[in-house]
Structures are given as structure tokens and as C-alpha cells.
Write a structure and sequence with these properties.
Blueprint lengths: L7 H10 L4 E5 H14 L6 E6 L6 H9 L3 E4 L2 H9 L7 E4 L6 H9 L2 E4 L3 H8 L6 E5 L6 E3 L2 E4 L10 H13 L4 E5 L11 H20 L2 E6 L17 H15 L6 E4 L3 H4 L3 E12 L3 E5 L8 H5 L5 E3 L9 E6 L8 E8 L7 E5 L19 E5 L5 E5 L4 H5 L6 H5 L5
The structure holds pyridoxal-5'-phosphate (PLP).
Pyridoxal-5'-phosphate binds next to α10.
């Protein structure tokens, strides 16, 4: 089930100090999860989590990750800049390539980051933009579908990422002529899975492949990067991923395939690290009864896109009414002129009246970060609930002048009198 560890008082107090809507993040819980992950992989001499910046790109959060010994996984120039500003460099950073401007290779190389290549053509781009390092990571796409037992975990054959096995061999040969001595293997084959056997199965696949490539291509197999994809229970009836079991499962595969223990293990978890540590706190501002009952809140899809974009479920609780019977059926909506701007559809909830404070759970990853400005709606503030139990604003809400700022190139726009 979602993370219900914080009482309603935590949200009510936050809403006294800051206007809604806002995302609230729980520092202690983020630290707890970072530590639990580290414990689960403590058997490995060379393990590190590289938090996926895209999940929650706030410097206050990234600095917590740094204090917990994590690195960062970046995929853009801006994310690299953020990483550098927060004091990450060298082997604390991975750049995951993905059809991005080649200049970003140069920026990553200047930072000393690991480079994870996505395609054969990236080799020439890296050579001419920053140069080829002595150790390179390659992203593998096995094609087809990825199954564990009878369950299809993902469909890599339809995914835009990675090298085929044939291309891995060709790529490693080219890289060898360019001075590469060691390589890593990366794959991301399943998203938001709470199945504890995903990482063990993935590591079995990558370790076996890496070992054979090592022998055949005469290069040193340095590490596997299991990437992200470990899920969280968004629904009350869903189980939490047993992260200790994930670590133990990887250990068993590892000890079988790499008994000499020379290969490092990296992860790039985003959702699992911070998803359950964030909530979108919003107030009911409107009630409407037509063919269904609607509760309008002061947040909208611009603050949390997942329900509108993927039909994703996010649990909702009403402050002060957690123990009330869920005997009303509501659509909980935002204010965008778009009918998919709904945080919940036909959801059983306690009776809600305007003024009630609603908590939308599990928004700590891919929440605020996916925000956008459709309809001229502005992104909310981000508040950190600190380990000491205080509240700190770590990003203010956008203001209209932020929205207009990019018009500064047009003197005609400025002449309209918009505050830019
Ligand atoms: C998005 C992403 C992640 C994080 O994924 P989660 O599902 O949040 O764990 C990790 N690595 C790469 C390369 C990604 O694109």
C-alpha cells in the first residue's frame, strides 16, 4: 500500500504555512530508502545507486542523495549542470545517451562522468565530442518480450533504446580500436515492477552476456547497470517491493556467474527512491453534481501529469476523514480545459466539501518534474518536510512572469506591458 506513515497533522500544518497546491517531500523517508537499498546490496564490493535525476530534479533532494552516498543518472545538459552544481563529478555521474545533442557528450566527459551509449552511431559522436574514455557502458536491448516465468515484464522489441546483441559485439570491437579497455552493460526492460525477481533476472541476463563478451572481445567486463524500473505500490492492495529480497536475488545470480567478484553493480532507481516520499497537497475548491459528482481541486494535471497521461492511479486521502466511510463516488478534477484532467475517476471517497484538504499520494517521483504550463497554468511550489520536523520551501511556485519570460526576445511582446 502507499506510504501512510505521516499523519494528517503533517499535511494540515504544511498547508497552514504555505498556500496550496504544493508537493511535500519527506526527507527522513528518502534517507531511509537510500539506506535500505545500500544495505540490500552491501554484499557487493562495488555497488552504487545513481538516482535518476529526472524523477525529482530539485537540488535540495539531490544533495540529500549525495549525503547518502548516491551518484546521479543524467540524460540532458541541464541535468548535468544540476549535478555539477550539487557537487557531483567523476564516477558519481552517469550520462544515459538517448538521441540527444552530441555536445552533451562533451559536457559529460568534462565532468568525468560514465558514458552509457545507446546506439552504434553514438561511438563516432562521442569520439568527436569529448573523446572516448578507457571504460564505456553500452545499453542492451534484447528485443522480443522480457518474461519472468509466464509473466511478460516488458516489450523491449518495441522500445527505442539500446544496442542489439550483434551491435554490442560490433560496437565493442570499434571501441577497442579507439582505446577502450573495459566496458559496462546496461538494460532497462521493465517499468514500475514490484516483482522482486526483476533485478535478479536482469542481472543474470547482463552478467552472462558480459562474461561472454569479455572472453570473445578481449575487453574487461567492469560493471552491470541494472538501471531503474523497481516499482512502488500506488494502490492500497498492492505489495511493497521487498528491496532486501531484490538485493539477495541479485547476489545469488552474481555469485553463480561472477564468483571472483570483480564486476561492479550500479542501479539508477528513480521511482523507488522518492515516489512514496512525496504528496501533492491540494484543496477542494468546488463541488458539482451533473451526471456524476465532481470535486474540483486547486491543483491540476500541470502539477501531476501521470493520471492524465497514463491513466495512472494515485491514492487520495482527505485530511481529518481517513476513518470516515468511503461512501461517496467522485471524479476529482483540476481546472484545465481538458476532460482528462482528473486525479481520480469514479473513486470511492468520504464526503468532501469545499475547503477540505486532499492529499494525493506517491508524487515524489515523476510528479512535479513532469509538470507543464498548458492553459497558462503554473507549476506549484515544492516543500521539504525536514528530518527535524520543520518545513522548508525548496522551490517556489511559478509566477506569471516565469511563464512570460521566454517572450523577452520580442520587443512587441514587451511593449504589451507584460511583466517579464
Ligand atoms: C527514467 C530512467 C530511470 C529511472 O526509472 P524509474 O522507473 O524511475 O526507476 C533510470 N535510468 C534511466 C536511463 C531512465 O531513463
Amino acid at each position: 500500500m502507499p506510504n501512510f506513515k505521516r499523519s494528517d497533522d503533517v499535511f494540515l500544518e504544511a498547508a497552514k504555512q504555505f498556500p496550496t497546491p504544493f508537493h511535500l517531500y519527506d526527507e527522513q523517508e528518502i534517507r531511509n530508502r537510500a539506506r535500505a537499498l545500500k544495505r540490500a546490496f552491501s554484499w557487493c564490493r562495488d555497488f552504487r545507486e545513481y538516482f535518476a535525476v529526472k524523477a525529482l530534479p530539485n537540488p535540495a533532494i539531490l544533495r540529500i542523495m549525495k549525503e547518502e552516498g548516491c551518484g546521479l543518472d543524467c540524460s540532458s545538459a541541464t541535468e548535468l549542470t544540476l549535478a555539477a552544481a550539487c557537487g557531483f563529478s567523476g564516477d558519481e555521474v552517469i550520462l544515459s545517451a538517448n538521441a540527444m545533442p552530441p555536445e552533451e557528450f562533451r559536457q559529460a566527459r568534462e565532468l568525468g562522468a560514465w558514458i552509457n551509449l545507446d546506439d552504434l552511431s553514438d561511438i563516432e559522436l562521442l569520439r568527436t565530442h569529448g573523446g572516448i574514455p578507457e571504460c564505456v557502458c553500452l545499453r542492451f536491448n534484447p528485443g522480443g518480450s522480457f518474461s519472468i516465468g509466464n509473466t511478460i515484464m516488458g516489450n523491449p522489441g518495441e522500445a527505442k533504446y539500446g544496442f542489439t546483441e550483434q551491435q554490442l559485439r560490433e560496437g565493442l570491437r570499434t571501441l577497442k580500436t579507439l582505446g577502450v579497455r573495459r566496458f559496462g552493460l546496461h538494460a532497462f526492460l521493465s517499468s514500475n515492477t514490484t516483482d522482486a525477481s526483476y533485478f535478479p533476472e536482469l542481472s543474470r541476463l547482463l552478467l552472462t552476456l558480459g562474461k561472454s563478451l569479455e572472453k570473445e572481445e578481449g575487453l574487461n567486463f567492469a560493471f552491470v547497470d541494472l538501471s531503474g524500473g523497481i516499482g512502488i505500490p500506488y494502490r492500497p492492495e498492492e505489495p511493497e517491493t521487498d528491496i532486501q529480497a531484490v538485493g539477495e536475488g541479485v547476489r545469488r545470480a552474481y555469485e553463480e556467474i561472477c564468483p571472483e567478484g570483480q564486476v561492479g553493480v550500479k542501479t539508477e532507481l528513480g521511482r523507488w527512491m522518492t515516489g512514496p516520499c512525496g504528496w501533492l497537497v491540494t484543496r477542494a475548491v468546488h463541488e458539482k453534481k451533473i451526471y456524476r459528482d465532481y470535486i474540483g481541486v486547486d491543483a491540476c494535471a500541470a502539477n501531476l501529469m501521470r493520471p492524465a497521461m497514463y491513466g495512472a492511479y494515485h491514492h487520495i486521502t482527505v485530511c481529518g476523514k481517513r476513518d470516515w466511510p468511503a461512501d461517496h463516488l467522485y471524479d476529482v478534477t483540476g481546472c484545465l480545459c481538458e476532460n482528462n484532467d482528473k486525479f481520480a475517476i469514479n473513486r470511492e471517497l468520504p464526503e468532501i466539501v469545499p475547503g477540505d484538504l486532499l492529499v494525493i499520494h506517491d508524487t515524489g517521483a515523476h510528479g512535479h518534474a513532469m509538470g507543464y504550463n498548458y492553459n497558462g497554468r503554473l507549476r506549484s511550489a515544492e516543500i521539504l518536510y525536514t528530518a527535524e520536523g520543520t518545513y522548508r520551501m525548496i522551490r517556489r511556485a511559478e509566477r506569471p512572469e516565469d511563464y512570460f519570460a521566454t517572450l523577452d526576445v520580442d520587443p512587441a511582446a514587451e511593449a504589451l506591458g507584460l511583466k517579464i
